[in-house]
């Protein structure tokens, strides 16, 4: 038990016994806590020659210090309570490319409008890099494009998506060249699944940006397999877009030991909606 709180209670009740009752402990325990203070500061707290509890000069100083500590603690609790509903501060979100470029902006806009004092730093990278950032506490939470089997990572499904293959309209498609994401990207796994479904073994050109991949397909340089969520309405004007029987998910990830404060909880709830 906090010996300073014990001292305050002893003075308040003017009795070791009543202090023990109020603190739900024993009288010997109260005596030990007072003795701990005396040994710590090498002083006597009470004048035991008096029939009543009377503080020595050093005891008075300790009591004033104990009261100051209690006052500061109460102020802290009040501040924490008054700000418990305020979402403010800074946190870092890591996201894989497709979700970060095409889906996350809507969520961040909602957060900005509802919680203008919350500042979010966004780091966009491939899924493996996001996971590495989570493990080394460089980001608070992450969004990746593949399920993670790792005891250090907690993983929750956000939404389902599907893969499509695309090529330029009005020309015979070049199916010998396919633009894909780099290894380590969550999208790459599903692109390879799509190629298996199409029974194709084209030359692969790795590009770590979905927008550029779309541009290459739109220019007629080959075809690509991408997430349907990366398709904009204007893409239908220039691209043939065909759905594959390949489903995928986006996942919210965090370290299993990450402390979830009100800010992080708010961001998670917004992303998961």
Number of strands: 8
Topology pattern, helix = H, strand = E: HHHHEHHEHEEEHEHEHEH
Beta content comes to 15-25%
* Morphology: rod-shaped
Rg estimate, integer Å? 31 Å
Q: Count of helical segments? A: 11
The order of strands across the largest sheet is: 2-1-3-8-4-7-5-6
Structural class: alpha/beta
Helix content: 40-55%
Distance between the ends: 44 Å
Average pLDDT figure: 90
Write the layout of secondary structure elements.
Elements lengths: L2 H11 L2 H7 L4 H15 L15 H26 L6 E7 L1 H6 L1 H11 L3 E7 L2 H9 L5 E4 L8 E16 L8 E4 L5 H13 L4 E4 L3 H9 L4 E5 L7 H4 E17 L6 H11 L1
Parallel strand pairs: 1-2, 1-3, 5-6, 5-7
Antiparallel strand pairs: 3-8, 4-7, 4-8
Helix pairs in contact: 1-2, 1-3, 1-4, 2-3, 6-11
Notes on the structure:
With 273 residues, this protein is an alpha/beta fold. Helices cover 45% and strands 23% of the residues. The protein contains eleven helices and eight strands. It has helices at residues 3-13, 16-22, 27-41, 57-82, 97-102, 104-114, 127-135, 186-198, 210-218, 235-238, 262-272; strands at 89-95, 118-124, 141-144, 153-168, 177-180, 203-206, 223-227, 239-255. It has an eight-stranded mixed sheet, with helices on both faces. Strand 5 (177-180), helix 8 (186-198) and strand 6 (203-206) form a beta-alpha-beta unit. The longest helix has 26 residues, at 57-82. The mean pLDDT is 90.
């Amino acid at each position: 038990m906090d010996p300073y709180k014990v001292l305050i209670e002893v003075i308040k009740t003017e009795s070791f016994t009543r202090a023990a009752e109020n603190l739900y402990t024993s009288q010997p325990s109260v005596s030990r806590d007072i003795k701990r203070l005396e040994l710590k500061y090498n002083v006597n707290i009470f004048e035991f020659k008096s029939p009543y509890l009377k503080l020595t000069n050093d005891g008075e100083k300790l009591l004033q210090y104990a009261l100051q500590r209690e006052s500061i603690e109460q102020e802290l609790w009040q501040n924490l309570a008054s700000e418990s509903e305020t979402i403010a501060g800074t946190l870092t979100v890591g996201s894989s490319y497709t979700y970060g470029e095409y889906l996350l902006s809507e969520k961040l806009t909602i957060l900005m409008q509802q919680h203008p004092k919350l500042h979010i730093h966004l780091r966009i990278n491939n899924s493996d890099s996001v996971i590495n950032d989570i493990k080394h506490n460089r980001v608070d939470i992450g969004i990746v494009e593949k399920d993670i089997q790792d005891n250090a990572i907690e993983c929750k499904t956000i939404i389902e998506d599907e893969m499509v293959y695309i090529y330029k309209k009005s020309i015979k498609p070049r199916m010998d060249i396919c633009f894909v994401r780099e290894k380590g990207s969550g999208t790459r796994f599903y692109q390879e699944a799509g190629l298996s479904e199409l029974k194709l073994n084209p030359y692969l050109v790795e590009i770590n940006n979905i927008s550029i991949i779309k541009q290459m397909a739109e220019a007629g340089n080959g075809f690509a397999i991408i997430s349907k969520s990366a398709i904009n309405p204007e893409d239908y004007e220039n691209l043939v877009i065909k759905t594959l029987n390949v489903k995928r998910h986006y996942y919210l990830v965090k370290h299993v030991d990450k402390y979830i404060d009100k800010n992080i909880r708010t961001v998670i709830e917004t992303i998961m909606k």
